[in-house]
TrEMBL record:
PANTHER family: BILIVERDIN REDUCTASE A (PTHR43377). Pfam families: GFO_IDH_MocA, GFO_IDH_MocA_C3. Residues 149-216 form the GFO/IDH/MocA-like oxidoreductase domain. This is Oxidoreductase. InterPro entries: Gfo/Idh/MocA-like_OxRdtase_N, Gfo/Idh/MocA_Oxidoreductases, GFO_IDH_MocA-like_dom, NAD(P)-bd_dom_sf. Coiled coil: none annotated. Residues 3-117 form the Gfo/Idh/MocA-like oxidoreductase N-terminal domain. Gene3D superfamilies: Dihydrodipicolinate Reductase, domain 2, NAD(P)-binding Rossmann-like Domain. One of its GO terms (molecular function) is nucleotide binding.
């Protein structure tokens, strides 16, 4: 078992502590949080060992899980890597693209593995269909949440939209060509609503909307490709796959047949895969353990985390503020 520790014991940090303790891949040694009073309360309530310093925790671990505010990701990640320990780090990978590239290079230099916590990659609905997404040419994603002061230290792009950016980059095998974006500041000091149009070199276009001041919660993405439409509901963990194929000469009475303007007949059929329930955060942590043990590239590498942040920063830099 890999000895694991957590840096940062806030809301998400406590979830990671609980799941690492449950995992059969890790031996949870404890945590460090800069707020020592809060750390003492957590230690007394849950029994997790609180370490007196970041360095002492890192020294005791094989893998360190960084769940601090984004502003401190680079500082913490750098110390973990330079100590020769494997790094799991929450999204966004760092505060700046330059820091993300530096972490990636450091991990390569020190021969350690790194994974970014892009949890939607492990959403069971997305996992059920991602192998079916083949050369999508138009993608639409909506990620809407009710207002929560937690997370407003960063733009809605880095708080919410980056989930969809990462998922889209994982299935569109092409470089980004152009980004157009608009943002609206309503409550926070940074945009609370954002829309981005990402154009890829291969002609694919992705239209993304993210809001953290909505009246309802929604996390949906739709992928359109030749002869197929794929819908993923990340919130409800459901997916729908609609495919088209050339209609047979003698279709049965229940076949759904469409005829286009050129007179070509297509049959519509549904190919909805089974969605297996899971705990996505536990799965991503276990996936990282497997990558370390088998010396393979993690599911969401530091390079991929840097790429997602790079596109997210392009969105922010291209904002037309309304």
């Amino acid at each position: 078992m890999l000895k694991a520790g957590v840096l940062g014991a806030g809301h998400l940090g406590k979830i990671h502590l609980k799941l690492l303790q449950q995992s059969t891949n890790y031996d949870l040694v404890g945590f460090f949080d800069a707020n020592q009073e809060a750390a003492a309360v957590i230690e007394a309530e849950f029994g997790y060992k609180s370490f007196p310093s970041m360095e002492s925790l890192i020294y005791a671990c094989d893998m360190v899980d960084v769940v601090t505010p984004t502003l401190f990701h680079f500082e913490c990640g750098k110390k973990v890597i330079e100590a020769g320990k494997h790094l799991f780090i929450e999204k966004p990978i760092t505060h700046t693209v330059e820091e993300a590239d530096a972490l990636r290079d450091l991990a390569k230099k020190h021969g350690v593995r790194g994974q970014v916590g892009q949890v939607e990659r492990f959403n069971p609905a997305f996992m059920a269909v991602n192998h079916m997404i083949d050369k999508p040419m138009f993608i639409e994603a909506h990620r809407l949440s009710e207002f929560n002061p937690r997370g407003t230290d960063v733009s809605v792009v880095l708080d919410l939209m980056i989930h969809d950016i990462d998922a889209i980059l994982s299935v569109v095998k092409s470089d980004v060509k152009r980004v157009h974006a608009s943002g609206v500041t309503v409550i926070s000091e940074t945009p609370d609503i954002a829309n981005a149009r990402i154009e890829f070199e291969n002609g694919c276009v992705a239209n993304l909307t993210a809001s953290r001041i909505s009246m309802k919660t929604m996390r949906k993405a739709r992928f359109f490709q030749k002869d197929a439409y794929i819908s993923v509901d990340f919130l409800e963990k459901k997916c729908e796959v609609v495919k088209m194929k050339d209609a047979p000469e003698n279709p049965d009475d229940f076949a759904m047949i469409l005829t286009n303007a050129e007179g070509v007949k297509k049959q519509i059929y549904f190919d909805n895969p089974e969605v297996d329930a899971n705990n996505a955060i536990l799965d991503e942590l276990n996936s990282f353990a497997e990558a370390i043990k088998n010396d393979r590239t993690p599911e969401v590498s530091l390079s991929q985390g840097a790429d997602a942040l790079r596109v997210a920063m392009q969105v922010i830099e291209n904002f037309k503020m309304l």
